[in-house]
Fold these 4 entries.
Entry 1:
Amino acid sequence: MDRLPSRTEVPFAQAIGLCLLKENTYDKKYLDTHTIGFEEFRRHILGEDGTAPRRRQVGGRACDVPARVIIALAREWALKRTSLAGGVKGGEGGACRMAYATESARMMVLLQAMQGLGKPGVKHLGHHHGPPYNADLNFPDTRPAA
């Protein structure tokens, strides 16, 4: 193993969460009505629980992504519905298949909850069966008649 997900993805996700919290670009109503414990997460990310507050710069250094890119991504994400996927087709890998990798999977769900998980376009996909598939989608045959 060349890296542990908790050393890269988690600080990156926390930095995105920090941006969404500081800029108030998250779905407060959804969190109030559909989640339990979000206030603890918020306090932790902002450092209001006695731990050091998370910083976009720390997230950037931990995953080699500049803070400005993390901020731009969080702002773009706040403007659109976003789906996240962890894992690969067939179940050969996945977000939870390494030491401490459950933390990055939990962060994916927390970030999705900040957007209103389950609303149209806001999904968390495992991809153990491949990408989302719509069997009802039919494209007309555009080949010339023989």
Entry 2:
Amino acid sequence: MKEAFKEVDKTLKESKIDARYRYFLIFSFSGSTCVAVLMIKNKAFIANIGDSRCILITNNTCKQLTIDHKPSVLEEKVRIIGCGGVVSQAVISNGKRFGPKRVWMRDRTGPGLAMSRSIGDTAAKRIGVISDPGNSI
């Protein structure tokens, strides 16, 4: 499944899909989260990127089967900072911070991504956002 996610990310980057928003006409701010479930007989293999979740509902119970990839998670934050990114909340005009922790370039012009892994987001790839789903179940 890791190879499939990697291939989708590569294919998207090489495609002629126009993300419509370019940062200095070089990097795309467009991307996506993803959840994939592969069923083989009675066994499920699950992988995710970003904050899309796989939930199992049985009878009257719900169980989250994936873990969100958020920049506030220490391992994710360390990788992003190590790649030159910044992890911080958004700041409004009066200087007050709000919302979830986000991934930013050092100059804070973008992308303001509220997840630490995605498919696409070529600008964010330069600052530590990856398309690897990590350890899947």
Entry 3:
Amino acid sequence: MPLPKIIPSDIKDLVLQYHTQFPDLKVCTLARKILSKEKTRYSESQLRHLAAAIIAEGAGQQKDFKIKEPEFILPESLYEEYLPYCLFPSDNKILILNDIHIPFHDSKALLTALKYGRDKNVNTIILNGDIIDLYSESKFNRIPRLRNTKVEIDLTRQFLTMLRERFPKAKIIYKEGNHEFRLKSYLMDKAPELYEVPEIKLDELLKLKQLRIEWIEDKRLIKAGKLYIIHGHEIFSGAGAINVARTIRLKTSENVIFGHFHKTQNDFQTAISGKLVGGWSVGCLCGLNPLYMPINMWNSGFALVEIDDKGFFDVENKIILDGVVK
């Protein structure tokens, strides 16, 4: 749906109402907050543009404010802006868990990470990709007896239900990793006619809405204060990279924390401006010696991130050794 030439008064009033209540929110966050609470006929991208126009024009004092017609009329673009998912300032004590690979998870390591988060009273949990393995949908060779998608979905749903019960007030975010993307890839290759059927999308199969778990699409960034959170597959770096924390930091030029590589590493660099930039690679919570790669450099781990009111943060990038947090 194209943007209206004249902004309707109802959407103008709605934006002003939220802008007055949350004057410090960025436009992207404000638009997302409105969509989470209100029903509108606009997409997030459209609402963001409308909100920016309303706020920029002196809080919409002109009732019939018109959006300036472009000088050149171009064909409609299919490009969709992929803005980061911004956490609220109140989401300031974050437990990051990634690479659980259910049903190939390490129960002892996973329980250790969950207990640590509970004891630290986290208010936000980010399931940072590859929570489910989706072994059957892999393009690699697969052992027939291990191929059972229904069992994987049932076990993952069981884990998510337990997580919601143990952390009833926490915000829980599930970010799609490359293993979750296997289902989309399988449908695109094998059954493209079913790709758009909502009931067979992974977030629907896992019943995330019923569990009050937010789903973040593949490759979308998460921003927590001055820290970016990605799964790790978003940036090509090669699985054989020795220092992936340094590699990803160099490729992003920002503070970034990620999983995907199944090993704990930290890297820091001071820029010429004096800005300190860090990269944190978080360990995994799956079995460390799978059949397809019994010899590797993996370790069990998770991370705890605390954000202050100015967006500065502290990262505890933890290693788990035999059930003990290091």
Entry 4:
Amino acid sequence: MDWGVGNYEQIAEQLLPAARLVVDEASLNGGEHVVDVGCGTGNAALLAAERGARATGVDPAARLLEVARRLASERGLEATFVEGEAAALPLADAESDVSLSVFGVIFSPDARAAAAEMARVTAPSGRIVLSAWIPEGTISKLARASREAIGRAAGRPAGGRPFPWHDPEALTALLGPHGFGVGVREEQLAFTASSPRDYLEVESSQHPLWVTARALLEPRGEVEALREQALAILEEGNEDPDGFRATSCYVVATAQRT
């Protein structure tokens, strides 16, 4: 999926509280080199730059990198943004003091390769801090419905379960061979709107997942069915009878070499 389609910069604003928590957890020291893997529009990289870090953001979506560069310029921040995949980071060995990823590396098709790359570019005394969704709740169900619709339209069979980046044991098994010990704590992020329908309108018009789904489903006459399914999911999981609120749980994981 091309994360550059749609209007992800609007979606990224919803994730800023999580980015702040990840950067807080990193306990940055002035002058450290921070690498934001799957940086998107640069949430974490820009926050790190505000705190005096030398920030580098890496993402495969060229348009989002342009947005990140513009935001850095508008805010007077020094940050570098380069195109690249999590499984093949365009960085030298041990170049990063802190490797961050806010809901970015978790979408890498090859978790082991991505983890190996983050470990490779992180200095021996460095640390990795990332956030990962816990796959449950209303927003998770909404995303799953979209992915399944895309899979059916593209004629792809349902794949296996994605790597459980939220699971402490799985993360330890992933990063332990690279010399890292892992600590995990759970956090929450609330998504809000004036109503379930209004939330769906924004998501369906801006989120790259929905833009991708629409391009595949419209020729098949299947968009409305997905919208009805999505609205039912949002209404069932709504926590605010006077508007819309859905709380998603996620983890912040910190890995340091032992």
